[in-house]
Amino acid sequence: MAAEHFRSTPDQIQLAFFVDGSWDRSTGEGAFAVVFYKFAPRSKDDGKCVEMAWRMDPAIHNNYAELMEIAVSPRNANMTATPPFNLVKAAETLLENARRLSALGESGSAPGVNKDEESLRRSIAMTAKKIAFETAPAIDVVKADWVVFADAAAWNLFMEWKAFDLIPLDGSISIADLASALSASESLVSRIANLLIAVGKLLPGPAPGTIRHSRISLLYVSSNTVSALASVAFGNGMKPYARWPEYFAQYGRQEPEGQRHTPFSYGWGHPDLAPWEIKALYPSYASTFTKAMKSRQIVGGDMPVAGPAALYDLSWVGDEAAKKEGPLVVDVGGGLGQLLKDVVTAVPAMTPDRCVLQDRKEVIDEAREVGDELIQQVVMMDHDFHTEQPVKGALVYLLRRILLDYSDKLATGILRQLADALPDDPKARVIIMEERLLDTPVPQNCIVDLVMLNLGGKLRNEKTMGEIATAAGLKVIKYYAKPGDPTCVVECAKA
Ligand SMILES: C[S@@+](CC[C@H](N)C(=O)[O-])C[C@H]1O[C@@H](n2cnc3c(N)ncnc32)[C@H](O)[C@@H]1O
């Protein structure tokens, strides 16, 4: 969040921050949200925040009110003059949005009518959560986390056992039949299912001792890519988190620097191994991870890659195709080819035979096996991106969701291999696409950063991305990001 406005008087220091929205300075068009702070100077009142307020352009979408709440709350923690939570106002917002949602339901399925439904639902849930957090007795908030621990343990185990797959999509199953299909004791399955029913993740079936799916548990069915993401959230997140105290006691209270001796390797009981070596010991987890990376639900997973909706429009590469021979695009660490598939679909001039997919051997083997017709036509290559890039002179090297896994030193090394492979063509680019560190902490962005901490990596912002690019012999042509959106694209050329 950048300071847009700063004024200092003998009595007061005023700061205003742009929080969200889009706004064209030259035309004054758009809608945006701003938060103001007024501080007493240190000499007067020890620099305390004496007033805080937020203001929005009235034209802005109603849902931004909740973003404002998020933007403001982390700062409240450090301020002595915290404005009280306005329960009535929050409840009114909730009611107003509940009426809008209800009206959407009544308006039938006319095309386009439900376009905003997901963001409206999200906004309602966020306000309701804020109300619950602010109104519940403090002890209840603390205890609620204990339920989350058990909830996560229960759905993770049921996913591992594929128990959710055994529940009919329409209908119910008895606990006895489920236990029998799982070769587990009925009483054990019943106790775990009870917790999932208690939190609403499963629903009781029509007869006693039966269960059925809820709208949430359907996402844990193994054919849904969200289940793979959930497994990764547990394996890369929960498992290491649980051992943080011992890890930091052993290695010191500092961030890990390499790929070994990370909270991840420690949590999995193999402190000397790097993530891919650990995954090699657990092929089913490795395969789940690869599947998770294909999920459209991951940050940036449904990101358009060409046209006006794209954060970075790759169409220009298609325009260059006829003017240049050889490889156009190399997707470095490209997994099963999910990004290349989107690219060649969106930019038909980038024919698959001019695109290279690189990854670790086991992933390329899997891509050869499971890749669809389009992906089978790209050039597939085993390659370790820490070593010299074998494809020289491509127009574009793509690195999506790679650098965040690594420390500055290793990330710089990966970039340097690409800087060295770039041709002497002023149009040639290294394009980094990944989740960025938002200026204002929001939970979903913070958890990605902490999972990266587990792996020895980190989320970066414009400044820190620029630092590693420069250290690798690149220059940043442009940093693309939309306010409030965690995805960024960093367009780099040879320095
Ligand atoms: C987080 S995934 C991202 C996959 C893909 N780029 C995407 O955006 O969906 C990281 C990828 O890097 C690959 N990878 C890890 N270490 C590698 C290495 N040393 N060389 C090449 N690929 C590697 C992994 O196998 C995995 O496919």
TrEMBL record:
Keywords: Methyltransferase, S-adenosyl-L-methionine, Transferase. SUPFAM superfamilies: S-adenosyl-L-methionine-dependent methyltransferases, Winged helix' DNA-binding domain. One of its GO terms (biological process) is methylation. The keyword Transferase applies. PROSITE patterns: SAM_OMT_II. Residues 262-474 form the O-methyltransferase C-terminal domain. GO terms for molecular function: O-methyltransferase activity. This is O-methyltransferase-domain-containing protein. It comes from Lasiosphaeris hirsuta.
